[in-house]
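Task: encode each sequence below as structure tokens.

Item 1
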Amino acid sequence: MKYRFNYTFTKLFFSSLMALFLSTSLFAAKSLNEKNISKMLDQVKIAKEHKNISAMKKHFLSRTPVSLTNQNIEETNTKRLSFNEYKRHLSQYWKQVQSNLIEVKERNMDIANNAKSALVKSTYIQTVEIKGVKIKTTIYETTGISLIKGKIYINYFSSRKMLNTSLRVN
């Protein structure tokens, strides 16, 4: 009786392990397409709205270069950052932000013929609340995407905030 229990348990354990392994490989992306890219970018957007760096960083390669531009009528200010510097920048910025809502207005994708890389150009409307004042800003982002071992990563990120289109909502 004890032998039968151990055999059944072992069989069940290995069956479960195999099912887990197969399900993991089934969910790995074989190629990039608009659906899986949009899903990943939406996860990043939600992480930004919730000011969750941990959830956001899992979609970025650690070596991802980041370019941030703030532009208004008088000047343009561009910062080039490593991904670690970008995380620190967001942490400092998010300390001031009480609420953050990001709306996708437009997203255009150029997927490479081999479906292993893509360039995505997006337009967002961001409404942030800082010190009780809500400000609406248009953001243009260019995001480089790579498929590496079945996972979709951001390998380049550029964001341009158009401050001259900001509106005080309050």
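Item 2
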Amino acid sequence: MTTYADRYPRRLRLRKNLVSEIRPLDVAEVRDLMTLYHALDETAVSRLPHDVQSPNFPKMLRRQLEDERLHILVTWHEDDIIGSLSLYRSESIWARHIGNVVFVSHPEYRRFGIATILFEEILPIAQSLGIEKIYAELTRDHIDGIKMLKHFGFSREATLKDHIKDRYGRYRDMRIYSLDTEGAHKAMEELIAGFSDYSG
């Protein structure tokens, strides 16, 4: 993460005058991230691609962060992480230019613009890693997530039928939305026009 460490921490005033700090997640802060995951309701947890309730999940996160297979930007408000955006780089030799993103926000801090700023901040990080396209995987009932991605310029690239099997054994279609990182900054500039660096 040395390629972009000099940019952070970055303090911002988001919507509703929420003062926050954006920075990459340190391995030592995985426990704080788990506090965010534990604040999610069952529906939100079921929409995540990983079993965040597994006792082995924190260990896996630490290992991936240390190996730089995973990069996570987090938003702090005071002493709590209130949002995170994870970037998983493909390990396939054919798809080293592709990255998968997963966004999570605290239920009490939605519609503050956390997703907007994290997606804007992740773009130069992705490009520094040689990632040309980022994608996200959602189900049809993830309505808010789909609206958010479309708002950021993502477009639906594929639908994989019965590709997801939830914990209750139900099959669901997976929708894949993607965004080219080159030129995506312009699309994001208007969305973050109301945010400002905070030095108070």
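Check on item 2: Helices lie at 30-38, 42-46, 57-66, 114-128, 143-151, 184-189. The chain has one domain: 8-195.
End of task.
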